[in-house]
Each structure stands twice: as structure tokens, then as C-alpha cells.
Design a protein that fits this description.
Blueprint lengths: L1 H32 L4 H23 L9 H28 L2 H7 L3 H11 L10 H22 L4 E2 L19 H31 L3 H23 L14 H28 L1 H5 L2 H15 L4 E2 H21 L16 H4 L2 H7 L13
Helix pairs in contact: 1-4, 1-9, 1-11, 2-3, 2-8, 2-9, 3-7, 3-8, 4-11, 5-6, 5-7, 5-12, 6-7, 6-12, 8-9
Length: 368
Amino acid sequence: MCELLNRGKPFFAVIFLQFGLAGMDIISKAALNEGMSNYVFVVYRHAIATIIIAPFALILDKKIRPKMTLSIFGKLMLLSLLEPVIDQNLYFMGMKYTSATFAAAMCNILPAITFLMACILRLEKIKLKCIRSQAKVVGTITTVAGAMIMTLVKGPVLELLWNKGRSTRELKTSGIDLNHSIKGALMIATGCFSWACFMVLQAITLRTYPAELSLTAWICMLGTFEGAIVAVIMERGKAAAIWSIKWDTKFLAALYSGIFCSGLAYYMQGVIMKDRGPVFVTAFSPLSMIIVAVMGSFILAEQMYLGRVIGAIVIVAGLYLVVWGKSKDYNSATPINEQIEPADKVKDTCKNVEENTRLEAITINVPT
């Protein structure tokens, strides 16, 4: 029983993570609809996360925290710029132009962007004769096609049972035209590219700085300062009222996002990636999209359109093709730091996989 629970821990953790991220999308969209600046929102979010996480990092990571070096600090600066500043600001700006469901669905292009980035940087080798390489390529193309369908094709409105009886004014029937969809999609896609860079760099940084809580605290603190600089520049000339916050949806969004998404989520993501690898984390992202779609129609009265549902399904199909193709790149039984093999040891991976497709497990002993 204990062994079963230990094996299920990563699954429970990543499912809990997706539910929390879905809640962030809904609450954040509600705050943005009330006129909250996305730049200010990002600053408050990470300021709250820093206040919550820093004390735990100081106490719990005291014995395992490595010495800070210039190289590590440079990586921390870049990490805090990639995700807290660039990704989140572009993501929330794209959400302003579209909807919470649209933004959550578009985030499923992340594995395809990561794969393309790895190919461009020659970190990923493509062997067209290998079925898993074929899956990665086809999955990437499918994901991009699904994103285009979501962006360009609207289609008829889907009548949901719980939306029947609502007046037209209660439902969000306007404000998401083609121009807004294109702008929002480009912003979210660019944010996902930044997010992909963040995940790769986070995995690299954890090798030399294996203190997850301290890493999270540093990212949140530096992200607060960097985000504040961006907010002051972008919101210059506007009234100081944009920085004011009251006990309303805006404060709830900043508090929830800061505690869960910028604090707990960074930490959980780092722990799961060390154990199972980044592919495992991204494999569950469609769950968040489904939760947001249901909650968005309830809480935000967002309408679903056939074209965007079809596009989302195509994106998810492409996502799982990429994830399946990448699944053998990581051995789920060992931490990510121990999963990196020399290039000459990986050359025959596809051949080995095809010859052992009927085996339940493959053990590869790499000489050191």
C-alpha cells in the first residue's frame, strides 16, 4: 500500500497542480475584466509569493542550500525574467484579448515549442526512420495546426446545459473577433516560448542549485523587482490608482496566484521534474484546459465555439504525439539529473525501443 502511494505521489501532485492553475486562469481573468493592469498584477503576485516562500526557504533549505556564485545568480536573473516577467505578462495580455479557455488551450503548444527550440539549438536529433522521431515531428505540426484552427476558425456557438436560460447580456458574445484572436494567440505563443526556455533552464539550474524552495524564493523575489521596473515603464503617465488594491477580486487574484501559482507551483514543478522529467509535467496540461472550459462557462459566462473546441482537440492530439515521442528520453525510475547520457550512448535509442516494444521495462547500464 505504501509503495502504491509512493508511486502515485507524482500523479497526485501534478493533477493537484493542474486544478490550481485552472483556478488561477479563472480568477485572473475576472480581475483583468475589472480593469486590473496585467503588469501590476504580476508584481503583486510575485511579491506575495516571496513573502510566503522566503521564510520556509531560509529554514528548510539551510543545510542543502549551495553557495551562491555569479554563474548561478545569472541563471536566477534570467529565470526570473523569462517566466515571471515575459511569459506571464504576455499570457495575461493574450487572455485580455481572448478568454480564459482560449488561453488555457493555447498553452498546450508548449511541448511542441520546446521540441522546435531543441531542434534549432541541436539539442534534439531527429531520425525520420525512428517512429518516435516521426511522432515528435507530426505532433509538432498537428499542434501548430490546432493553434491556427483555434485562432482563425470560430464556428457556431455550442449550447451548454448550464447556460440555457441566461440572457444574451450575461453571456460573453462579443469582444473576441478575429483581430483579437490573432493578437492574443501571438502573445500567448510567445509567452509559451519564454515558458519553454524557463523550464529548460530551471532543470539545468537545479543540477548546480538543488534547493527547490530557495530557487523558488529567488525567482519570485527577482521577478518582483524586474516586474516592477517593467510595470513602471509600461504604465507611466497613468494615475497611481492602478497600484491601489482593495479587498476585492483583484486582491483575491493576486493572493491566490502568488501563494499557489508563483510559490507552490514553482516548487512542485521543480520537485516533479527532478523525479519524472519535464515531459511528465506537460503531459497533464490538457486537464487544466478542460477544467477552465467548464469553470469559465459557469463563472465567467464564456461561450464555447465549435471551431475552437475542434482546434483544442487537435492541439491535445498533437501534444500527446510529442509527449509519446519524448517519453523514452526520460527514465521515470531515476531522477532527471541521472538521466543524461553521453551522445554516443543514445545513438541507438530508437533501434533499441523498436526491438523491445513488447517488454515492460528496459534497463540500460551506462558505464561511468
